[in-house]
Design a protein that fits this description.
heterotrimer; A mainly alpha (300); B alpha/beta (432); C mainly alpha (339); A: mainly alpha; MetI-like fold; B: 432 residues; alpha/beta; D-Maltodextrin-Binding Protein, domain 2; 5-stranded mixed beta sheet; 16% strand; globular
Chain lengths: 300, 432, 339
């Protein structure tokens, strides 16, 4: 970096900034560190507190969790809750994990594919009817889910997809939010890159596959993780479509113990932990890819 | 390259179709065996009782297989609504009595065949208060399993009673003032915050049950020829009495209501010394709270007026869907569960519910029920005084969306008695 | 760069696309093979249920009744035209219960959303910048921690916060009691008389729980966008002695504007359709319907009281509200929306 001129002299769009210290000291970053931690650490505690409360609750007995005044750390630490859930005959945990995994994984793959593809197309191509189609897709995000519940269910019946995992997979291929998100991120892919590839004779699909997807890697990792989580935690719709035990998904165990009148807090807390665990693991993995993606592509 | 992507795309589609096919139901059962699907709402005690009976039935009838699908309360209603237009509901549906007519009128439920139970026999064998909900337009659409009771006797924590110096609380009370005095004594208030209610009656079932029962006890009627009426002297007397209880200090309706401290939770957590809720809660909570369950007794509430009566809703029972392909087999199982006195009693015991069959409420069966589950005792004595709540086009709306919110608002001090009665009457009549 | 230089395309797909001559063929084919299946899929799985769902607004429909031959409409589920919409205009205090609940729910929903949005942005944007400014290793840790609530299922979150808000055994009252030296028994979720600046406390309780859960979402998006700001600009600014606050105000925020708009619009839309956590925390719409937002109202009417026609009419109103607000938002925070 040889230029020492202030950015605003190059870009008239940016406002004039009066320097607060002599140029060249370069100490700005270090000095900013401490105030940042002062805010971040307490904020972390506030964020984590309900979680810790929940995790600790999962190790308490039914009796203790309802004590007045409440205890923070479990007085009698017990794994009983987890044992109860895992050995409950009415709730075959392995089956639920399997079903949830199948649905979540397939949906992640298909949603990432369609969102990135169509996000890219809406960002970089023109065709007749594009506006209408785009706004229609955006519009679907604004429609409350309850409107299409019964018609949606009826369609699934006609297609014989009730009580089948496919019922949650086949209609889930398009995610409006995903298309929106990837369009936004695709906008910043330099056109020169794409045109150069075209000049080199690459087909459109090849361009999508090799260049666009590569550029979108952080977004793919991020959104993939979000989609996984969304599918993993979904419980309202799966509860209706999948009524037979052998096809049910994991969140049902949350509902089971949190049912209307006999809330079993300690068990619900344990159930929540069991449900979050896989999502958390996926999250940790995707973190690696996000970081990798950024460092590999280098600073833009 | 386009080909590759196509292959990828179609490969994915095939994969998902294959996998989704793996997780689904097989082709319908072969002609030799009958499969009965049963839908119930989630209640462990209820369902284990029903499943035990199903096992016994299947042992006797090896060509029948019964499968259960359960839903929590809210999801159950939702699933029924989505499944009915599609015709995918189960063969046997567990129904709450007050819902039956609205589903029957839509043509969704099958009428009970005379061979299973005729209307006349039903009236004879089953308590009026319970069978009334299942009769629509002089046709019977299901059979109740329980006598649903949310008034008449209250949960009492005898250990707390002793602690505060009340001797022999199980003897009951002759008059309400005695009851109120005991309740206030058992309440604990610390720094203006009620940490233990004396008598928790401010739940969404307890309030309508109390209000309408009191009206009956004061000699009034809330369903008359001119429609629903509560802005009457008896209505006023009933509501004023409830307000009086709150003002005396038996419960704080701001802290104890449907959002927090629901009566079942609160009683077993010992933040309420007495609570108004049916005996089905005992099996539900006994596992987690054995200490409290041990000192729990039900004690009859004193009559408030000259008439001995109280309101009962038509409770849980079984119905068969008109879309079912195996109605005959379905009715046979229903009959086995509900009309066979011993089976019905067995289920009542498992679920902690009172018997719907008159036969089981007296005589040898009743004695064995009480000896196994003493909490039935106080209720069996007053079953004869129960009156059916009456036909409402939407009883849940009237109970939970109108009666409860209006009355709790009044009890919390945010509306006057007159205002509440007037609005209550108007809103219920509008809902017709 | 115009289509004028080529003869008008004759194929169907060709007519759909007008592109530069040199890549016409390949691009046309690409669009053709991708967009047409999309349109077909959406027509079937999205458009059709939508049209049907919305058309219920012109009928008295209940799932229990068999109704007429076409999709259950007609017959026992009669056509009523605009009757539902007309009844919505009844503002008298004597109006039927569901109308009054409807009006209250609009107010509650707007209150909810207009509180959630600024709260969310005011927390996530600075947090994202702060996280970006710290040491590389700490960054990942902070991001993970703040994102955890998003991973939790709404049922778990609702129960967690219920636990905190409980009047007698909750954490909040427990802490307040310690400070005050005497017992505090406020019922945050169930007292209809508690208001803060005109906002019902039960609603506020849910807002806090929801914002807590949703923070991580926007945070991740903002961090991704911040990482996209060219380091060159920042280095230049730093060399010229710009301090942290100035960096934030004059460089970060303007460059982040498109992402902020994106996040704002999406947060707004989600806040209108939030259902899970509200249902878990206040099952029946809260004390005196104070937390009965429109989606809850729609749900109860549709499934508990089987007034699906009325419920569909309310959905249309909700949709129109969301649509107009999004439109206004994009206009106000004008930024590149190229077509």
């Amino acid at each position: 970096m040889t230029e020492t001129v202030l950015p605003q002299t190059n870009d008239p769009a940016l406002p004039y900034i009066k320097p607060s210290r002599p140029a060249g000291t370069g100490k700005g970053l270090l000095h900013n560190l401490r105030p940042a931690y002062l805010i971040l650490v307490p904020a972390c505690v506030v964020t984590l507190l309900p979680f810790i409360w929940m995790i600790l609750g999962s190790f308490k007995t039914g009796r203790e969790i309802r004590q007045v005044p409440p205890t923070f750390f479990p007085e009698t630490f017990t794994f009983e809750n987890y044992k109860t859930i895992m050995t409950d005959e009415d709730l075959p945990l392995a089956t639920f994990y399997r079903n949830s995994t199948i649905i979540a994984l397939i949906n992640v793959v298909q949603v990432l594919f369609t969102s990135s593809l169509f996000g890219y197309i809406f960002a970089k191509f023109k065709f007749k009817g594009k506006n209408i189609l785009f706004w229609f897709i955006m519009g679907t995000m604004m429609i409350p889910f309850q409107v299409t519940m019964i018609p949606g269910y009826l369609i699934l019946t006609k297609l014989k997809l009730i009580n089948r995992l496919g019922g949650l997979i086949i209609p889930a291929a398009i995610d409006a939010f995903g298309i929106f998100l990837f369009r936004q991120f695709s906008l910043s892919i330099p056109n020169e890159l794409l045109d150069a590839a075209r000049v080199d004779g690459a087909s459109e699909f090849r361009i999508y596959r090799s260049i666009v997807l590569y550029q979108l890697r952080p977004a793919l990792a991020t959104f993939g993780m979000l989609t996984f989580m969304f599918n993993w935690n979904a419980y309202l719709w799966p509860l209706i479509v999948l009524t037979e035990e052998k096809v049910r998904t994991l969140p049902i165990i949350l509902n089971w113990y949190a049912n209307q009148h006999t809330q079993q807090l300690h068990l619900t807390m344990a159930a929540s932990v069991l449900v979050i665990l896989p999502v958390f693991i996926v999250f940790l993995f995707s973190q690696k890819w996000i970081v990798e993606g950024i460092t590999l592509t280098g600073m833009k | 390259m386009q080909k590759k992507s196509f292959l990828l795309l179609s490969g994915l589609l095939v994969l998902s179709l294959v996998l989704s096919a793996c997780g689904g139901t097989d082709a319908p059962a072969e002609a030799e065996g009958v499969t009965l699907r049963v839908w119930t709402h989630q209640n462990d005690a209820f369902n284990s009782g029903l499943e035990a009976l199903a096992d016994a039935y299947m042992a006797d009838n090896p060509d029948v297989s019964i499968s259960f699908e359960t839903f929590d309360y809210d999801t159950y209603i939702q699933t029924l609504q989505t499944a009915l237009p599609a015709g995918t509901e189960a063969d046997i549906l567990q129904m709450f009595g007050s819902w039956v007519c609205s589903y029957a009128e839509g043509g969704n439920l099958a009428a009970v065949p005379d061979s299973v139970l005729s209307l006349a026999d039903a009236r004879e064998q089953v308590f009026e208060a319970q069978i009334a909900g299942y009769i629509c337009d002089e046709t019977l659409y299901g059979v109740p399993q329980e006598f649903n009771i949310e008034y008449g006797a209250t949960l009492v924590n005898t250990a707390i009673a002793e602690e505060v110096g009340i001797s022999d609380i199980t003897a009951g009370w002759e008059i309400w003032d005695d009851f109120t005095a005991d309740a206030v004594q058992m309440a604990v208030v610390q720094d203006d915050v009620m940490t233990r209610a004396g008598y928790n009656f401010t739940a969404s079932d307890a309030i309508p049950a109390t209000f309408y029962s009191l009206i009956l006890q004061f000699g009034g009627q809330y369903l008359t020829d001119s429609g629903f009426q509560v802005n009457t002297p008896e209505g006023k007397q009933a509501l004023e009495m409830m307000v009086g209880l709150v003002e005396a200090g038996v419960v704080d309706p701001v802290l104890y209501n449907d959002e927090e401290n629901w009566v079942g939770d609160s009683y077993f957590e010992e933040t309420s010394a007495m609570g108004l809720v049916g005996p089905w809660v005992v099996p539900e909570y006994a596992g987690d709270f054995p200490d409290v369950a041990d000192v729990t007794e039900y004690v009859q509430l004193p009559w408030a007026g000259s008439t001995q009566a109280f309101v009962a809703s038509s409770g849980w029972g079984l119905a068969v869907s008109t879309n079912s392909a195996v109605q005959e087999a379905a009715w046979d199982f229903v009959k086995y569960v509900t009309l066979n006195a011993d089976n019905a009693a067995q289920w009542n015991l498992a679920s902690g519910t009172l018997p719907a069959l008159k036969f089981n409420a007296a005589g040898a069966n009743a004695e064995s029920l009480v000896s196994e589950f003493p909490h039935f005792g106080p209720f069996l004595e007053i079953l004869e005084y129960a009156q059916y709540e009456g036909h409402f086009p939407d009883r849940d709306l009237v109970w939970y969306d109108i009666t409860y919110p209006r009355i709790i608002n009044c009890l919390q001090g945010n509306a006057t008695v007159d205002e509440t009665l007037e609005t209550l009457e108007r809103e219920v009549n509008e809902s017709y | 760069m115009t289509a004028a230089s080529k003869a008008p395309p004759t194929s169907f797909f060709g007519k759909l696309i007008t592109l530069r001559p040199s890549r016409d063929g390949a691009k046309k084919r690409f669009i053709g093979t991708t967009v047409s299946p999309l349109v077909l899929y959406m027509a079937f799985f999205t458009l059709f249920p939508l049209v049907w769902g919305f058309s219920l607004a012109f009928f008295e429909y209940s799932a229990r009744r068999a109704g007429g031959p076409v999709l259950g409409l007609g017959g026992d589920n009669p056509f009523v035209g605009l009757a539902h919409f007309r009844s919505m205009l009844n503002f008298s205090p004597e109006a039927p219960l569901e109308i009054r609940q409807f009006h209250l729910s609009i107010k509650t929903t707007l209150l909810f959303s207009f509180l959630v949005l600024p709260l969310n942005l005011l927390l996530t944007l600075p947090l994202a910048v702060l996280i970006e400014s710290v040491h590389q290793k700490a960054k990942g840790l902070f991001r993970t921690i703040f994102f955890l609530p998003v991973l939790a299922p709404s049922v778990g979150v609702g129960i967690m916060w219920d636990y905190i808000y409980h009047p007698q055994r909750g954490l909040l009252n427990g802490i307040l009691s310690l400070f005050k030296g005497k017992l505090v028994g406020t019922n945050y979720t169930g007292d209809p008389t508690l208001f803060v600046l005109g906002i019902p406390v039960p609603l506020l309780a849910i807002i806090i729980a929801y914002v807590w859960q949703d923070l991580g979402y926007n945070l991740v998006i903002f961090i991704a966008a911040l990482q996209g700001i060219p380091e060159s600009i920042r280095d230049a600014a730093r060399i010229d002695g710009v301090n942290g606050w100035q960096m934030f105000r004059f460089i970060t925020v303007p460059l982040l504007k498109p992402t902020v708009l994106l996040a704002a619009v999406l947060t707004m839309i989600s806040s209108f359709t939030v259902f899970d956590i509200i249902q878990v925390m206040n099952n029946d719409g809260g004390p005196q319907d104070l937390t009965r937002v429109m989606v809850l109202d729609i749900y109860f009417n549709a499934f508990r009281y089987q007034r699906m026609g009325w419920s569909a009419a309310v959905s249309i109103v909700l949709f129109l509200i969301i649509f107009s607000i999004s439109l206004v938002q994009t206009r106000l925070l004008r930024t590149e929306w190229e077509y």
